[in-house]
Write a structure and sequence with these properties.
It is built from 6 helices and no strands. With about 130 residues, it is an all-alpha fold. The chain has a domain of about 70 residues: Orthogonal Bundle (Transcription Termination Factor Rho, Rna-binding Domain, Chain A, Domain 1). The radius of gyration is 32 Å and the shape is elongated. The model has no long low-confidence stretch (mean pLDDT about 75).
Length: about 130
């Protein structure tokens, strides 16, 4: 709704605070939270916290503006194109099996005495 031409925008000149205040007066916080299930309406709601969240979160603001338009019987925005929503969804990841690299095998060192009678010569440096 933010990219509409201002002359065609029924919300032009209406502050977000005015919209929230109107909706709270009309529905109350509880019903508003049921209609638009966002945390700023359902958990310790206030105008200030709602304004802070809605200014940062376009999808939530769009829902609030849509409800305001419907409640006042104002012209509704055209539905968003499916292509724009498809662009927002991450593409499915295709699992590919990568070949595993194996390290060359090293001869195993033993704690048994070697033929010359030294034990753990690899630890003590008695080569």
């Amino acid at each position: 709704m933010h990219n509409m031409n201002q002359s065609n925008n029924p919300l032009h000149g209406i502050k977000l605070e005015t919209i929230i205040t109107y909706l709270v007066e009309k529905y109350g916080w509880e019903e508003l939270g049921e209609r638009i299930n966002i945390r700023c309406f359902t958990h310790d709601p206030s105008i200030k916290s709602s304004l802070r969240f809605l200014r940062k979160t376009e999808w939530a603001r769009d829902k609030v503006e849509y409800l305001y338009l419907r409640a006042n019987k104002l012209p509704l925005p055209p539905p968003k194109a499916e292509a724009s929503q498809a662009a927002k969804k991450p593409a499915a990841k295709i699992a590919t099996k990568k070949p595993t690299q194996t390290a060359p095998e090293k001869p195993a060192k033993s704690d048994k005495p070697s033929s010359d009678g030294t034990v753990n010569s690899h630890i003590w440096g008695n080569n």
